[in-house]
Design goal:
The protein is α+β, with helices and mostly antiparallel strands and about 425 residues long. It is built from 12 helices and 15 strands.
């Protein structure tokens, strides 16, 4: 027996031309039931006395579900079902889904969307999504982070990582990490018109891609393809997971820092997202990916080493500012240097000679210091450093650490002699 609100939604979807099978999937009802109420029309269903039977398996968890939805309205039914199963619930997922549909705010029916399927190994879709988070290690400060996501169009296998920037260097680095995780490369990758991927159109209306992205595409042998303007739904396979990640993973959790956020995300991908039965394909994603993986192009033998080149001035204390962070150079380096930005590395050259290499720092206002760069030249240079460490700026929030850490750093400096 459907309630009046659900009946109105069924009739509205039918009026929009949504097929009965699609209405049944959306409402969790049998197609025969949907057809019966469409034929009956607006007549409200009659309710008889409730038969006495076994108590509902969901009853002990109704208050918990109501509190969770009140606090976090975006939580998905699948997420909440997992949570109450951990508390002892043994009933059906559909019972949870129907109860949540009854207590959630009504947002109205969504228009029907046509899905386009792609053969195995052919296409992936890439995008960034904006999230706002309060890290426990930095209380009182709200951070904006970006979720990079790559979804294989055939199997729906999902790779995702949170980053602090959506600049070109980050975009290239995330591609490399995704290809390594997939163990291969699709034939084409679909983008919206993000500035880091698409720089515009020529006078004939042809898409102009970023040269560094094209260099990455040549190295990994994939074809970039931009969706049409104002048609971001062309990339629905990557944009729907953003909502899924927000509702099923992000909402209602606590994260210490970016590293903890990504660690929890990776665990969720491995234990929930990529092992579920996908609602559209009706296949276990991990199993579909295992079949699709053999259709992906093989990884190249050598790493991608194309660079972004720019000039930078060395500060009076021996640092070069790149992307909001600071990287050390050796004492007596010339004032103007060439910087080469690789996807995962910063390389600094003085008169054509490489004088420093650093891993890219995630974040802002952090210092990366190579201890070997400080040989006692200028007294104005920073001298409190250890080999290959990253420190925050003075005045930034610094988590409390045991004194043993500082004693270990002091002992290391003592062994090495004058810093």
């Amino acid at each position: 027996m459907v309630r009046l609100g659900e009946l109105m939604m069924i009739l509205e979807l039918h009026r929009q031309g949504v097929p009965i099978t699609a209405i049944a999937r959306r409402t969790g009802r049998d197609p025969k039931t949907v057809r019966k109420y469409i034929e009956r029309g607006i007549e409200a269903p009659a309710y008889g006395p409730r038969s006495v039977g076994r108590p509902s398996k969901l009853a002990p968890y109704l208050d918990f579900l109501r509190e969770r939805v009140t606090a976090y309205p975006e939580l998905s039914a699948a997420r909440l079902t997992r949570e109450i199963r951990e508390l002892g619930y043994v009933g059906a997922y559909t019972a949870v889904k129907r109860y949540l549909a009854a207590i959630r705010p009504e947002n109205g029916p969504r228009p029907y969307e046509v899905r386009f399927e792609t053969p195995a190994g052919v296409q992936a879709q890439v995008d960034f999504a904006r999230f706002v988070v309060d890290f426990a290690d930095d209380p009182g400060t709200t951070r904006i982070v970006w979720l990079f996501s790559l979804v294989l169009g055939h199997s729906r296998f999902l790779f995702a990582r949170y980053v602090l920037h959506q600049d070109l260097q980050t975009l290239l680095r995330c591609h490399m990490q995704a290809f390594d995780a997939l163990g291969g490369v699709p034939i084409e990758i679909l983008y919206d018109r993000m500035k880091t991927a698409v720089t515009g159109e020529d006078d004939q209306g042809h898409i102009v891609y970023n040269r560094s992205l094209l260099a990455l595409a040549r190295h990994y042998r994939f074809q970039p393809r931009a969706c049409r303007p104002y048609r971001a739904k062309t990339k629905g396979k990557v944009e729907r997971p953003f909502r899924y990640i927000r509702q099923d993973f992000f909402v209602g959790r606590r994260f210490r820092n970016l590293e903890d956020l990504n660690a929890q995300l990776i665990d969720w991908l491995d234990t929930v997202a990529n092992v579920r039965v996908h609602g559209t394909t009706q296949q276990v994603i991990a199993e579909a990916f295992a079949a699709e993986q053999g259709e992906l192009q093989t990884l190249p033998e050598h790493r991608f080493d194309a660079v972004l080149k720019l000039e930078r001035r060395v500060s009076h204390d021996g640092f070069v500012a790149i992307g909001g962070n600071y990287y050390s150079v050796p004492d007596r380096t010339r004032r103007v240097v060439e910087v080469q930005q690789l996807p995962d590395m910063i390389r600094i050259l003085d008169l054509g000679t490489v004088v420093a290499e650093h891993p890219v720092i995630e974040g802002r206002k952090q210092y990366r210091i190579d201890r070997s760069h400080r040989t006692g030249g200028s007294g104005r240079r920073k001298t409190m450093s250890a080999a290959g460490i990253t420190i925050g700026r003075i005045g930034d929030h610094v988590p409390t650490r045991p004194l043993d850490i500082y004693q270990a750093i002091g002992a290391q400096l003592a062994i090495g002699g004058r810093p």
